[in-house]
Amino acid sequence: MVKHTARIEVVTEAPGGGIRGSSLSERAVAFGSSGGPALACLVVALLHLPLVVLTDRSCVSACDAFSGAVKDLRLGTLVGTRTGGILSGPAAPYLLDDASLLILPARHAFGADHEIIDGIGVAPDYYIPLTAQDLSTGHDPDIAKALTLLGR
To answer: What is the pLDDT of residue 47?
Structure first.
């Protein structure tokens, strides 16, 4: 029996502007956005591993792009709530004739089926909102669903 392994390289911005990294090895991979890394690179030796991506409204920018790619390419399952939908890049200022300034995104992001991501976000495959009861009891339904999907 061949054991499949995956390695996640997580790179985060350290205090003071430096960069620090760590790696994790698991049979199944779950990647989450809450309190998560600024940048993540997933290195999978064999692409026959289950992947669950945990998303919420704080998942923006590269996390929006990553979640959208996982969903569009059917590489894994999204669990949680819709992503933040902030993927348009830096805004470009335009000076108008009346000396006012109009600031618009430099580009817009669309999913593979031309669905709009900017301002809307990427919808999860399993919508699981965090409730006040979950918070008060310390229960995380996103993690529970991810572990179920991963067969744990």
So the answer is: 64
- Which residue in 58, 68, 86, 79 sits closest to 129, CA to CA? 79
* Structural domain contains residue 1: no
pTM, full prediction: 0.61
Domain annotation covers residue 139:
yes
- Percent of all residues in the chain with a pLDDT value above 90, rounded to a whole number: 32
* 141 within some domain: yes
User: Residues 5-9: contacts with CB within 8 Å, 24+ apart?
Assistant: 5/45, 6/42, 6/43, 6/44, 6/45, 6/49, 7/43, 7/44, 7/45, 8/40, 8/41, 8/42, 8/43, 9/40, 9/41, 9/42, 9/43
Classify residue 79: in a domain, yes or no: yes
Neighbours of 105 (CB within 10 A): 15
Instruction: Assign residue 97 the CATH number of its domain.
Output: 3.90.226.10
Task: Count up the domains in the chain and report the number.
Answer: 1
The residue range of the domain holding 38 is 6-149
3-state DSSP call for residue 130? coil
Distances (CA, A) of 35 to 32, 57, 62, 96, 119: 8, 12, 14, 39, 21
